[in-house]
């Protein structure tokens, strides 16, 4: 069992995350401020600022945890055995068939209850 001690974030980590958020907000403000320029240049500038904000955020404990989680998730997705096209089609047809069957049963049940209620109430 692998147990790691919890590392609390420091004031410096908070400052780094705050700087990353300020960079992102500033990038968005600049994106709209320079609306007379080409959209391509504005988008590229926003991407560069976003990349810098991500790099700053990754320097904090929280950022490293998120990065480690993303890397672990990617390796887990690679381990998944995805169904073949034929298995997917067969499963989809079974689901459609069951939905149709349950829908018909519920419709018949509703008709029966409606007939009972009408016979009782006149």
Automatic annotation (TrEMBL):
Single GO MF descriptor: protein transmembrane transporter activity
Q: Name one GO cellular component term.
A: plasma membrane
One GO biological process term is: intracellular protein transmembrane transport
Mind telling me which InterPro entries this protein's record contains? SecE_bac (IPR005807), SecE_sf (IPR038379), Translocase_SecE/Sec61-g (IPR001901)
> Gene3D superfamilies, per this entry?
Preprotein translocase secy subunit (1.20.5.1030)
Q: What does the UniProt keyword field contain?
A: Cell membrane, Membrane, Protein transport, Translocation, Transmembrane, Transmembrane helix, Transport
Instruction: Give the family, as the similarity comment puts it.
Output: Belongs to the SecE/SEC61-gamma family.
Report the function annotation for this chain. Essential subunit of the Sec protein translocation channel SecYEG. Clamps together the 2 halves of SecY. May contact the channel plug during translocation.
What is known about its subunit structure? Component of the Sec protein translocase complex. Heterotrimer consisting of SecY, SecE and SecG subunits. The heterotrimers can form oligomers, although 1 heterotrimer is thought to be able to translocate proteins. Interacts with the ribosome. Interacts with SecDF, and other proteins may be involved. Interacts with SecA.
Q: What is this protein called?
A: Protein translocase subunit SecE
Natural source organism = Sedimenticola thiotaurini
Q: What is the lineage of its organism?
A: Bacteria, Pseudomonadati, Pseudomonadota, Gammaproteobacteria, Chromatiales
* Gene coding for it: secE
